Amino acid sequence: MPPPGAGPLRPAGPLSAPRRPVSRAFAAAACLVLGTGLLCGAVAGSWLTEGADTRTAAQIAYDNGRDAWHNASVDALFPPVVDGIGAGPGGSDRRWTRVAVAPDRSCRDAENPSLAKALAPAGCVRQLRATYLDATRTDLVTVGVRTVKADQDTLKALRHRFAAKGLADDADLMPRTYAPEGTPAAPFGAEQRATWTVRVLTDIPVVVSAVAGFADGRTVPTPQPAADAVRPGTTTVAAEAGLGHDAKGLADRIEATFRAAAGSTTRTTEASP
Predict the structure, then answer these.
(1) 71 and 113 in one domain?
(2) pLDDT digits (tens, 9 = 90+) for 142-160
(3) Which UniProt keywords apply (predicted)?
C-alpha cells in the first residue's frame, strides 16, 4: 500500500522517454560527422582539381604547337620525301625531296626584314627552314616555319590584318630562300624567286611560308603570289611552270606535319590568311 498521504500509483511512462536526450545527442553527432565528411570531401575535391589540366583539346594543341620545333624530329616536321597527291596543275601528283635543312635559329636576321616586321606583333620563338627539289629536278621550294609567342586572339587579329591589307601577296614581304652551297639548292637565290605564300595559322602558334623558283638558276623578273599563280588560265611564268602549285602544295603539307606534331585536328586549307 502507498504510505499515508501519497497519491495513487501511476504507471511508468514509455521506456523510450528517458533516452530522448541521448537520441538527440546521437542525431546531432551524426549530423556533425556527415557535415564534416561533406566539407572534407569538398576540400579534397578542390585539392584534386586544383592541379588538374582543365584546358580543352584545342588549347592543349595550341600550347603543344609552340614546342613542336624541338619536341618532334626533323624528319617528322620536314619529311625527307613529301608526296603531293593531286597537288600539281590539273590535279596531277607531285613529289618533293628534301635537299637542305637549316639549323634552327633564333628569329633575328632569319627572315626577310619586311616580313619579320609585319609578323612582329606575334613575337617569335624559332625560325625553321628546309628546301625541297621536285621529282623532275626542275623546281626548288624553301618552306619556312616561324613559331611565335602570341596567344590565339593576337594571331587571329594578325591573320585578319594580313587578309585586309593583302600582306600575304605583297612582294616586299616575299620569304627568303635557303640555298646552301654544295647542294642542289645552291642556285636558288633572291632573283630566282618566282612565287610564294605566307599563312598565319591560328590553331597552333605558327606562321608557314613557302617560296618557289627554278632549279637551273634562271631569274624571274616579276614574281607572282601563289594564290594567283594557281588560278586556271593564268599564263605567267610561275603559273605555266606549275611553281604556284609547288609553293602552295608543299606549304599545305608542312602545315599538316606541324599540326600533327601538336595534336591539332584542324585541317589544312589552301587559303592564305
Answers:
(1) yes
(2) 999 999 999 999 999 999 9
(3) Membrane, Transmembrane, Transmembrane helix
